[in-house]
């Protein structure tokens, strides 16, 4: 695999697909957490808020499984 040469003449290996996927999942997780905060400040019914928060929380749990699981 070839590296990419930066102006300082240092060679950097490109990230593999798994590392890129983990980075994307981390970004999505942060956005979902921000969405929960927005929903909590919204002026809709508490029941609707809780349903949406529960769905997002489940999605975050699934994402965290893939981010933080131990690869054997």
Describe the fold and architecture:
This protein has 72 residues and is mainly alpha-helical. It has one domain (15-68). Helix content is 67%, strand content 6%. The chain contains two helices and two strands. It has helices at 17-41, 46-68; strands at residues 4-5, 11-12. A two-stranded antiparallel sheet has the order 1-2. Strand 1 (4-5) and strand 2 form a beta hairpin. Helix 1 runs antiparallel to helix 2 (46-68).
Q: Can you give keywords for this protein?
A:
72 residues; mainly alpha; two-stranded antiparallel ribbon; 2 helices
Count of structural domains = 1
Bin the strand percentage: 5-15%
Which spans of ≥5 residues are poorly predicted at pLDDT below 50?
none
Q: Calculate the terminal CA-CA distance, rounded to whole Å.
A: 24 Å
Helix and strand sequence:
EEHH
Helix content: 55-70%
**Arithmetic mean pLDDT:** 83
Q: Figure out the total of helices.
A: 2
Q: Would you tell me the structural class of the helices and strands?
A: mainly alpha
């Amino acid at each position: 695999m070839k590296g990419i040469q930066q102006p300082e003449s240092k060679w950097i290996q490109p990230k593999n697909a798994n590392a890129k996927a983990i980075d994307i999942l981390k970004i999505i997780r942060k956005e979902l957490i921000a969405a929960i905060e927005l929903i909590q400040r919204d002026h809709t019914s508490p029941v609707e808020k809780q349903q949406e928060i529960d769905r997002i929380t489940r999605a975050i749990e699934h994402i965290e499984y893939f981010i933080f699981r131990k690869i054997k």
